[in-house]
C-alpha cells in the first residue's frame, strides 16, 4: 500500500524553522489507527496528520493527529499545517483574501481561518481553540524545579504552577529569566515520579524575557509521554498561555507572540489572540505562517502494523 505525504514547517516563514509536520492528504478511509500510529513513530516528527472526509456535511474534513507515541484529540501546528496544505493543493477552491473552514477533531469542530495573497500560497493560518480551562495548581516548587534542573528561586515567585487545557492539558511553569530557561535540562527520572500519568504531564515553561524584541514570551515544552523530548512549537499550549499570562497579569496586551524552539535550533513564532470579558476568556486563537518543504511516499505492508 502506497501512502503519499507532504512535509511542512509550521509557525515559521522560512524552511528548517518552526515545527515539522507530515500531512497524509489522501489516506484510504479504512486505514487502521494502528498503522497510522506506526507511521507517526516511523517518521518521528512531533506530529503526523491524516486527512479524512468529514462526518458532518459542510465541514472541510476530519483530522486525525498522531505523535510518535499517541493520538491527540487536538493540536495546534497539525491543524494549521494541514489547513495550509489543503489550501496549497487547491482542495479548498480559490481563496480571495481569506476563507474560514471547519475541521473535525477529537475535541469537536475547530474553526480555521486561511489568509492568502492573490494567486499564492496561504500567508497565514489561524485556528480558534476551545476556551482554556484552569485546572490543578501544583505546590511542590522544589520538585518541579528539580525536574527542570533549576533552583526553586528560578521559578516565578507569584505565578502558580498550574494545569491548563484547551483539549490537551499542560502544566504551565513560569521562569524568572531567559537565562534560567536556557539552563533547563529536563530530568525524566523526576518527571516519572512527579507527573507521569497525571493531568498536566506535558510541561510548558515560559518567561516574559525574549530573544526577539517583538515577542511577548519565550517558551519550551517537554512531553515524554507523547514521545516528544522537546517540541519546537506548541500551538495547543499557546492559546492557554495567552489566557494564563493575562489572568495572572504577567502581560497586558490581548495580542501576543510566543517564540519557541530556539534551544533546539528551530526558531518558531506563534501569534496569539485572546478576547477577554472581565475574568472570562470568550475567544482564543493562535496563528502563524507555514513553509512547504517537500513530499514523499511510504510503502506499507499492512501486516507489519499488527
Can I get a quick summary?
The chain is of the alpha+beta class and 306 residues long. It has 6 helices and 17 strands.
> Could you tell me the radius of gyration in angstroms?
19 Å
Shape: globular
Query: How many angstroms does the end-to-end distance come to?
Result: 15 Å
Number of helices: 6
Q: In terms of structural class, how would the helical and strand content be classed?
A: alpha+beta
The percentage of residues in β strands lies in 35-45%
N-to-C SSE string, H for helix and E for strand: EEHEEEHEEEEHEEHHEEHEEEE
Helix proportion: 10-25%
User: Please, what is the average pLDDT?
Assistant: 95
Overview of this structure, please?
The chain is of the alpha+beta class. It has 6 helices and 17 strands. The chain has a 17-stranded mixed sheet that branches. The protein starts with a strand and ends in a 7-residue tail after the last strand. The mean pLDDT is 95.
List the helices and strands and how they pair.
Layout: E1 2-10, E2 19-24, H1 33-43, E3 47-52, E4 61-66, E5 71-72, H2 76-88, E6 98-105, E7 108-116, E8 122-129, E9 133-138, H3 141-147, E10 161-165, E11 169-174, H4 178-182, H5 188-194, E12 203-207, E13 217-222, H6 235-247, E14 255-260, E15 268-277, E16 280-288, E17 290-299
Parallel strand pairs: 2-3, 4-6, 11-12, 13-14
Antiparallel strand pairs: 1-2, 1-17, 3-4, 4-5, 6-7, 7-8, 8-16, 9-10, 10-11, 12-13, 14-15, 15-16
Amino acid at each position: 500500500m502506497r501512502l503519499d505525504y507532504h512535509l511542512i514547517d509550521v509557525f515559521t516563514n522560512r524552511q528548517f524553522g518552526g515545527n515539522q509536520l507530515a500531512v497524509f492528504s489522501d489516506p484510504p478511509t479504512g486505514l487502521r489507527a494502528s498503522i497510522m500510529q506506526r507511521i507517526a513513530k516511523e517518521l518521528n516528527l512531533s506530529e503526523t496528520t491524516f486527512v479524512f472526509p468529514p462526518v458532518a456535511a459542510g465541514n472541510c474534513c476530519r483530522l486525525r493527529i498522531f505523535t510518535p507515541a499517541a493520538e491527540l484529540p487536538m493540536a495546534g501546528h497539525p491543524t494549521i499545517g494541514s489547513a495550509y496544505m489543503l489550501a496549497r493543493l487547491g482542495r479548498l477552491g480559490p481563496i480571495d483574501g481569506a476563507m474560514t473552514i471547519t475541521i473535525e477533531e477529537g475535541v469537536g469542530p475547530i474553526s480555521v481561518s486561511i489568509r492568502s495573497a492573490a494567486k499564492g500560497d496561504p500567508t497565514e493560518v489561524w485556528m480558534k481553540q476551545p476556551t482554556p480551562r484552569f485546572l490543578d495548581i501544583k505546590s511542590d516548587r522544589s520538585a518541579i524545579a528539580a525536574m527542570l534542573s533549576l533552583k526553586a528561586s528560578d521559578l516565578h515567585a507569584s505565578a502558580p504552577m498550574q494545569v491548563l487545557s484547551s483539549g490537551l492539558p499542560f502544566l504551565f511553569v513560569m521562569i524568572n529569566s531567559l537565562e534560567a530557561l536556557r539552563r533547563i535540562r529536563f530530568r525524566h527520572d523526576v518527571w516519572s515520579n512527579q507527573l507521569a500519568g497525571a493531568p498536566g504531564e506535558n510541561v510548558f515553561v515560559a518567561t516574559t524575557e525574549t530573544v526577539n524584541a517583538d515577542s511577548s514570551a519565550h517558551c519550551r515544552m517537554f512531553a515524554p509521554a507523547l514521545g516528544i523530548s522537546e517540541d519546537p512549537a506548541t500551538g495547543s499550549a499557546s492559546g492557554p498561555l495567552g489566557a494564563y499570562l493575562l489572568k495572572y497579569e504577567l502581560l497586558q496586551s490581548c495580542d501576543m507572540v510566543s517564540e519557541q524552539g530556539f534551544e533546539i535550533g528551530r526558531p518558531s513564532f506563534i501569534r496569539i489572540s485572546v478576547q477577554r470579558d472581565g475574568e472570562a476568556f470568550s475567544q482564543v486563537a493562535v496563528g502563524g505562517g507555514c513553509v512547504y518543504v517537500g513530499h514523499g511516499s511510504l510503502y506499507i505492508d499492512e501486516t507489519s502494523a499488527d
